[in-house]
Amino acid sequence: MDVRPTTGRIGEDAAELLYVRRGYRVVARNWRCRIGELDLVLRRGDVLVFCEVKTRRGSRFGGGFEAVDRRKQQKVRALAQTYLLQMRACSPAVRFDVASVFVHTDGSASVQLFEDAF
User: Fold this and answer.
1) Contact between 95 and 40 (Cβ < 8 Å)
2) Cβ atoms of residues 63 and 80 within 8 Å
3) Contacts of 23 by beta carbon, 8 Å cutoff, 6+ apart
4) Rounded to an integer, what distance in angstroms lies between the CA atom of residue 84 and that of residue 80?
5) What is the domain-level CATH number for residue 107?
6) How far apart are CA 17 and CA 42, in angstroms?
7) What is the pTM (predicted TM-score) of this model?
8) Which of 26, 79, 99, 118 could serve as 53's disulfide partner, Cβ 3.0–4.6 Å?
9) Which residue range forms the structural domain that includes residue 106?
10) Share of the chain above pLDDT 90, in %
């Protein structure tokens, strides 16, 4: 059985909760278009945040943040541009974050947030 969808959902839930506790409003979650998916789109004040969430259950493949390489960053930027065009969204400030989530054996999650990661 593939646990990746469940693991990803746990990570996104944990990252979303952290942002909400910090005063952000969720604008979109798992927003999809033909080129891919944005995990979280959030807003606080004039700042629109595009957050890539990477979740791990172990350290075999390193921390989640390590998976957001230059290629992934380019894809997230392209997705954000498509989002802004399709939604006709306007924001004076746009930020790209990475939420690196570790799911413990008891099911709890720890979030390490990298603001303005790229």
Assistant:
1) no
2) no
3) 44
4) 6
5) 3.40.1350.10
6) 12
7) 0.92
8) 99
9) 4-114
10) 81
Q: Give the Cα separation of 113 and 54 in Å (integer).
A: 10
Q: How many domains does the chain have?
A: 1
pLDDT digits (tens, 9 = 90+) for 27-63: 999 999 999 999 999 999 999 999 999 999 977 767 8
Would residue 72 be called left, alpha or beta, if left means φ above 0 and alpha means ψ between -120 and 50 degrees?
alpha
In this predicted model, which residue has the larger pLDDT, 77 or 91?
77
In the block, residue with structure tokens 């995990």: 39
Query: d(Cα 96, Cα 94) in Å, to the nearest integer?
Result: 7
DSSP string over 39-78: EEEEEETTEEEEEEEEEESSSTT--GGGG--HHHHHHHHH
The one-letter amino acid code at 98 reads: V
Q: Supply the DSSP symbol for 3.
A: -
